[in-house]
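Notes to self after the call with IL:
- keep both proteins in one doc
- input above output, always
- annotate only the second one for now

Protein 1:
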Amino acid sequence: MVGLALAGMVGCGQAPQPSAPAKKPPSQASLQWTNLSNGFIEDYMRAQPFFAALAGRHEFDGQLPDLSSHGIKREIARLHDARTQIGAVDPAKLEPRERFDREYLLSVIDKDLFWLEKARFPFTNPYWYLGNLDPTCT
């Protein structure tokens, strides 16, 4: 009872605190970006199961990417398609964090395409395979 009386006195003479401003709902562009970026991440995890397992997605434990010539060509095509989709998103319509995420995903794609297409590491450097097969190479 005394606790209730003291609790009631704490607010005496104080102006009511303003309520927090209502959060605005996400824009249509933000919702579309969320779907696109989440889809890219899921596709990336499926294409790079070793990376996915290292990232804590243990449903990918023990899986390997398709490291055949055909599999590598398919990964290059997947990355180009993802780059086209992500690049088509107008950054002006996104929130600042989403703009950063967009640029980050584009840089990940560009890095992967460089090593696969330009440097042709899977075809010129046997070490490339260690990063995809050896759990101690991260």
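Protein 2 (the one to annotate):
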Amino acid sequence: MRKRASRGTPERSLSLERLKRPPSLLVQVEQALRQAIAEECFPNGKLPTEVELAEQLGVSRETVRLAAEALQRDGLVVKIRHRGTFLRPPTLGQIKAVEEKRKLVGYLQTDFLDAQGREEVANREISGRMLQGALEEAAQAGFRLVVQRTTNLEWRRAVRELADAGQVQGLICVSYHEDKLLRRLAGSGLPIVLLDEDTAVPGILTVRDDSFEGARRAIQYLAKLGHRRIAYAHWARADMNPSRPLGYRKGMRDASLYRRQQWEIATELTEAGGRRMVDRLLALRPCPTALYCFNNTLARIAIDELRRRGVRVPEDLSVLGAGGEEIAGLSCHQADWYQMGRSAMQLLLRTLAEPGQGAQRHLRLPHALRVGQTTGAPPSSATK
């Protein structure tokens, strides 16, 4: 008998979520057979006998029979007495659907969130140009892109959704990766190209700009102007684009310049992060005469903040960007981001057409130096 609530005390209602029942054996067998048909596991067009399927799947022969009848009702198979169960010849519409599926490739663009969940300064201009290049190359080859944006926090889920759905024949991942998941995908045989990223995972193709050489040449240029104290503002995500700080250090060594650890300033790619970076830069003693920034957007933020504080650019301090959005008058180096997108798609389509043919697996596109109005010789007081 149900116990009554005590007088004066309201009875609490119990609220539980409805349990989800696992699919029955019959549904699981039917799904397994549909998947096997979709993956062309029966090349001769004939299914194994009900007894053989029952043994392979670990179920009863009756369960297999009922599952096969469901497939027959859907027109996927036909049973012929005393001969077995056969795949039905595909209709013209089914052939077109398969061909369309084979002409789909995924394109996953990653945006980054800071510790407070706000989007960091994104190179939207870079990502837009790369996407345009990939789209045009795919269109010329008769392929369509399934384009999806995600964040670094949702990247794993987004990759799984695109890869596991089986709707795309290959995948381009832009600006982010995790080696653990890439190893699983490489083992699945799905062609993967990382765009604007690096990895050492075997079987994964990469296309990116030559950040190392671009940074080395940037420091070389500043050194020729006479700068001896050159700071570098790097993205605080140290695992992203490690080639650029290595290029900075190599450039300093090549120019026989003394490098101090505090001259490498880690920063978030946000307006607030840029302001804090300038705080640290101006507190250095002796103060650097040039600042090399991770990208053009960070350079713009730094220039605005420096001028707000009365620091003249480039008379008091030169600022050089490392690619990204187009900013009038900014000295920087830029890669051909549009061609990077095209190259990534070309590499993916070549792999789909000729799997295992040993195509070049890692492409690096060069940077070109553009001299603007934000760099010049260091102030005379700094050379004394």
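Annotation: The chain has twelve helices and 14 strands. Residues 1-10 have pLDDT under 50 and may be disordered.
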